[in-house]
Amino acid sequence: MPTVARVTGVGGVFVRSPDPTALAAWYAEHLGLPTRRYGGGATFHWDSGSTTWAPFPPDTGYFGPGTQPMMVNFRVDDLEELLGQLRAGGVEVVGELEETEHGRFGWCVDLDGNRVELWEPAPGM
User: pLDDT tens digit string along 32-73?
Assistant: First the structure.
């Protein structure tokens, strides 16, 4: 049987911004992303866990109001603490904290008005 080439994971998430430097600084300040001096991006390395890719219908409300074409979901280590820090830092936190069998979820809005999902995985995920 021949070997079939396939996707093995998500290599990156890339977003447009009218001010990429300011947006990178916002993510570093409010979400603690370890941004790099060149390009402002952040690279994460992990040996366990998972990354989900999922399409949504164009009229989904999950990304919040508006025409945002995609939403980034970040794993976090302490969702309640981070949401408190965001509020204290003047960041818009939207919706209520949700608990599911997959973990806890919360949302905020970034400097460019994009809804961002924050996920504290359930134990063992």
Answer: 988 877 667 888 887 877 788 888 888 888 988 888 888 999
The 3-state secondary structure of 43-84, one letter per residue? CCCCCCCCCCCCCCCCCCCCCCCCCCCCCCEEECCCHHHHHH
What percent of the residues of the chain are helix, what percent strand, and what percent coil, each to the nearest 5? 20, 20, 60
DSSP-derived letter for residue 85 is: H
Q: Which of 68, 80, 52 is nearest to 15 (CA)?
A: 68
pTM of the predicted protein model: 0.84
Token pair of 9, please? 């994971």
